[in-house]
Amino acid sequence: MDLRVKRTIYATAVAAAALIVALYINSPPEFSAESFLAFGTLLALSTLAMMLYLRFTEAGSTTSMDFVPELGAILLLGPTGAVTVTLLSELVSGFFLYKEKSFHKKLFNVSQLVLAVGTAGILFRWSGGVESLERLRFQDSLAPFLVAVLAYFAVNTGTVAFIVSVSERRPFFEAWRQITGGLIVFDIAMSPLAFLVAFLYTQYGVLAVFLAMIPLIGLRYSYGTNFELQQLNKDLLRLMVKTIEAQDPYTSGHSIRVSEAAKKISRALGVRVRQLEIIETAALLHDIGKIDVVYGEILRQNGPLTPEQRELIRAHPDKGVDIIKSIRSIHPEVLRCVRHHHERWDGDGYPAGLEGEDIPLGARVIMVCDTIDAMTTARPYRDALPVSVVREELARHKGSQFDAAIVDILVKTDILETLDTPEPAVPTAGTRLAGVSPSLRANAK
Q: Tens of pLDDT along 354-364?
C-alpha cells in the first residue's frame, strides 16, 4: 500500500478517535434502562442492515441501509450515542462479516463513518435539534435533522472519494462521481426514514422498528438489484463489441478504447453523470454498424476508396442505429450520438451534414476519440503516430473537423498521455500516404 494512502488512513483514524474522546468528555452518554434498550435496538438494526449490503459503482464500493439506524440514533441518543452505535456495529461487521478486508480498509471504514455520524450529530445539536427517547417534536427536529443528513453524506462520500483520489492519483471530484455511482440520490432520499425509525421507537417500541425496516430493506435491495442489472447490461455490450472486433486485428479493442477515452474527456468537460453514461455507451457502440465483413475488407485496404466503398462507409452510422434501436434499454440520445459521430464541426461530415452545436455533444466527443484511436493504431500504410503528432493534428483541425472546446482540453491537459493505445497488430510498412492528413484519412473511414 502506498505510503500516502497509509498516512491518510491513519490521519482519518486519529481524527475519529479525537472526535470520540471530545464527545465523551463534553457530552457523556446517559446511562439508564431506557437508553440501553434504545442503544441495543439501534446496534442490532445497524448490524442487520450491514449484513444486507449491496455492491455497486465501477469502483466496487458497497452500500447498505445501516445509515438509517445510525442517523436515527442521533435523534434518540444524541451524537455520543450515535457514534458509539456506529463504532460498535462497524467493529462487529469488520470482525465477523467482512473478514476478507485488510486491516487498513477496516480501520478506514470505521474511522470515516464515525466522523460522518459524529459530524452529523454535532451539527444536529448546533442547528437546534434535541434528542429524545420519549417524544420527538417533528416541527422542532426536522430542519436540524436535514442538516445532519447532508453533513453525514458529505463527510461519508467525501472521505471515501479523497482516499480513492490519493490512492489512484485522480482528481477528487472524478473519484467522488465514481464512488457515489447512481445510488447517492436514492440514499439521501431514503435518509428521512431514520426519522421514521426514531418516531416508531418512541411511540410503539422495539418490535415496530424492526417490522418497519423489512419493507424498506426490500425496497433498497430491489433498487440495488436493478442497478446491478444495468451494470450487467453494460458488461454484455462490451463483450459483444469485443467479440465482433476480435475478427479484425486492426480494430480489435477499438470501440472499448474509444469508450474509455470518451469517458475521460466527458469528465474533463464536466458533463453530468447521466449524460456521461450516455456518451460512454454511444462510444462503445459507435461502430456496431460495421459488423458486416465487407467493412473489415475496406478498413484493411491499402489505398484510396472507390466511390462505392465510400458510400458504404458513410452508411455505417445508420446501419448501427438500426441494430441498436432493437435494444429496449438503450436511451434515445445514444442513437443520436451513434448516428452523428462522423459529423464535422464545419458541417462537412455525414450522414446529415450537421454543423457546430447542432451536433450532439456525445457525437462530437466520439468524433475526436475515434480519430485519436485511428491515429495511434498502426495500419498497413503507416505506423502508429506518437502523442505529440496527434496533439498537433487535433490542433490543426480544431474548429473545422473538431469542436475547439474539446481539442483545447486535450491540448492543455495530459489526457492524451493517459489513453490506452493498441499494440501493433502486424509489422507495418513505416510509411504514410503522401498528401493526406492522418486525422482526415481516419475520419474518412
A: 999 999 999 99
Q: Judge whether 121 and 27 are in contact, CB under 8 Å.
A: no
Cα(260)–Cα(34) distance, integer angstroms: 55
Q: What are the structural domain ranges in the chain?
A: 3-229, 246-444
| Nearest residue to 366 via CA among 279, 253, 245, 439 | 279
Report residue 287 CA to chain centroid gap.
24
Give the CATH architecture of domain 246-444: Orthogonal Bundle (1.10)
- The predicted structure's pLDDT at residue 122: 95
276-327, pLDDT tens digit by residue?
Answer: 889 999 998 888 888 776 776 776 666 777 888 888 888 889 988 988 887 7
Nearest Cα residue to 125 out of 69, 198, 72, 75: 75
How does DSSP assign 174-205, residue by residue? HHHHHHHTTTHHHHHHHTTHHHHHHHHHHHH-
Minimum mean pLDDT range among 242-256, 295-309, 393-407: 242-256
Q: Is pLDDT above 60 for 50?
A: yes
CATH level 3 topology of 3-229: Arp2/3 complex 21 kDa subunit ARPC3 (1.10.1760)
394 vs 390: CA distance, rounded Å: 6
C-alpha cell recorded at residue 77: 441518543
Q: What is the DSSP letter of 54?
A: E
DSSP state letters, 324-390: HTTSTTS-HHHHHHHHTTT--TTS--SSS---GGGS-HHHHHHHHHHHHHHHTS-BTTBPPPPHHHH
pLDDT tens per residue across span 197-218: 888 888 887 887 777 667 666 6
pLDDT surpasses 50 at 436: no
For position 52, what pLDDT does the model report?
A: 60
Q: Which residues touch 226 (CB under 8 Å, ≥6 apart)? A: none
- Which H or E run contains 63? strand 61-63
For 219-271, the three-class secondary structure string (H helix, E strand, C coil) is: HHHHHHHHHHHHHHHHHHHHHHHHHHHCCCCCCCCHHHHHHHHHHHHHHHHCC
Do domains 3-229 and 246-444 share one topology? The answer is no
Question: What's the pLDDT band for 151 if we cut at 50, 70, 90?
Answer: very high
Residues recorded for the chain: 445
Q: Say whether 55 sits in a helix, a strand or coil.
A: strand
pTM, full prediction: 0.59
Q: How many alpha carbons lie under 13 Å from residue 220 in its C-beta half-sphere?
A: 29
